[in-house]
Amino acid sequence: MSFTEKPGNREHLERSDDCPKTVRPRLAAGSGSSSLSDWAQKKIADMILRRQLAGGESVVEGRLAEELTVSRTPMREALLRLEGEGLLVKQTGRSYTVRKVSPSEFFQSMRVREIVEQEAISLSLKNIPKQSLLDIKETIDKLISTGGVVEDFWDADNSVHEIFCTHSGNVVLSNIVRKLRVTTRLLSPATHSDVAKKIAPNIWKL
């Protein structure tokens, strides 16, 4: 899938079975461009993390705004935020490319994650409600036993890491962890079952 200026690209997007034409949600009167940019930001981030937009792929503001039926102002805001999150890289004019993570950057980031996430876990354990951990474990156990779409497993994985960030009490540390997770997610080859099997035993021990 691509939002580049390729001939015939729009026709491909509209008839693709795995990527139906996007219809944005209706917003309350007076919600303004902020709500639209929030929606566009989440939508594009999901597309990147689900590999619908591949690393190194070109993203053009105007074409993307047209395909998602969002005006250019909120789309511009969304793309700027995604650049700040490390998902997009600014190119000339109003175009971006999806950030491409090299194997070297991936493994270096994983090493740093081992250090900083241990600190986040250490700071947060005394603050996390036990029921929150039990709820996450229950979700993971169900996914392992019954299966599910890959996004369900990634959502569970995100819940585990986010709960440590949220309750660490250290905003700077939490932001570092989140940015590192973006980097490793962009290249991570893990399948949904690999993710679930890895995190479930750790939740059980907490």
Provide the structure class: mainly alpha
Helical fraction = 55-70%
> How many individual helices?
9
How are helices and strands ordered from N to C?
HHEHHEEHHHHH
- Rounded radius of gyration (Å): 19 Å
CA(first)-CA(last) distance: 41 Å
Give the overall average pLDDT.
79
What's the count of strands?
3
Shape: globular
Protein model, in words:
It is a single chain. The radius of gyration is 19 Å and the shape is globular. The chain has helices at residues 9-15, 32-49, 61-67, 72-84, 103-124, 130-146, 150-166, 171-187, 192-205; strands spanning 58-60, 88-90, 95-98. It starts with 8 loop residues before the first helix and ends with a helix. Mean pLDDT is 79; it is low at 1-21 and 26-31. 64% of the residues lie in helices and 5% in strands. With 206 residues, it is mainly alpha-helical. The longest helix is centred in the middle third of the chain and has 22 residues, at 103-124. Strands 1-3-2 form a 3-stranded antiparallel β-sheet. 22% of the residues are buried.
Features of this protein?
206 residues; mainly alpha; Arc Repressor Mutant, subunit A; 3-stranded antiparallel sheet; disordered N terminus
What would a concise description of this structure say?
64% of the residues lie in helices and 5% in strands. With 206 residues, the protein is mostly helical.
Layout of secondary structure:
Layout: H1 9-15, H2 32-49, E1 58-60, H3 61-67, H4 72-84, E2 88-90, E3 95-98, H5 103-124, H6 130-146, H7 150-166, H8 171-187, H9 192-205
Antiparallel strand pairs: 1-3, 2-3
Helix pairs in contact: 2-4, 3-4, 5-7, 5-8, 6-7, 6-9, 7-8, 7-9
